[in-house]
Amino acid sequence: MADPDLNTLNGIANSCTVLIVQANKAETLTQLFSTPLTLKNLFRAAGSHDDILKIDRYAAMPGQSATLHIDRSENTRFLAIVAGYYPFPQSQHMALVPVPVTSTKSGWLMPSWQAHLAPVTLDIRLGSDSISHFSGAEKAPFTRNNTAPTETGE
Q1: 4 backbone dihedrals φ, ψ, rounded to 5°
Q2: Max CA separation in the chain (angstroms)
Q3: In the chain, fewer beta carbons within 10 Å around the N or the C end?
Q4: What pLDDT, on a 0 to 100 scale, did the predictor assign at position 152?
């Protein structure tokens, strides 16, 4: 959902492009977001990054409410949400989310484990100058060597 005063500049609300970036490693996203030129190119749909699995772009309008259903790419372990606030996205405009993994054990004598990626449902509110509400998943810090946690803590 977007506030009516979304991305306000000089008292006028503006649209905001939101990127949903999928990657296998958090380090890929951390490096990407620490390089302003590369991040700017993502918003312009220019250039590419080998370790990025998929990028979805959506335009959010002031006061708009939308439900997005996004297909997860194979091997996606981390999602990044980046809102393109004016003049340039900064840390309060980004969220890094590990895709949760659930594991189940079957068998008693010779146990076997199965791991499955769980669905991710996020509730995001875009405010006048930052992401004002984020729920549905734990945000991961933008640091190197992030690993996706499992539901059982393993």
Answers
A1: -60, -25
A2: 69
A3: C
A4: 40
Does the pTM surpass 0.85? The reply is no
Fold of 16-135: Immunoglobulin-like (2.60.40)
**Cβ-based burial of 69 (10 A; exposed 0-12, middle 13-18, buried ≥19):** exposed
Q: Supply the mean pLDDT for the chain.
A: 86
Residue 76 contacts residue 22 (beta carbons within 8 Å)? yes
DSSP string covering 36-82, please? Answer: HHHHHHHHTT-S--TTEEEEEEEEE-TT-------PPPTT--EEEEE
User: Mutual orientation of helices 36-43 and 26-33 as an angle, nearest 10°?
Assistant: 100
Q: What are phi and psi of 77, to 5 degrees?
A: -120, -20
**Residue 138, Cα to own-chain centre: how many angstroms?**
11
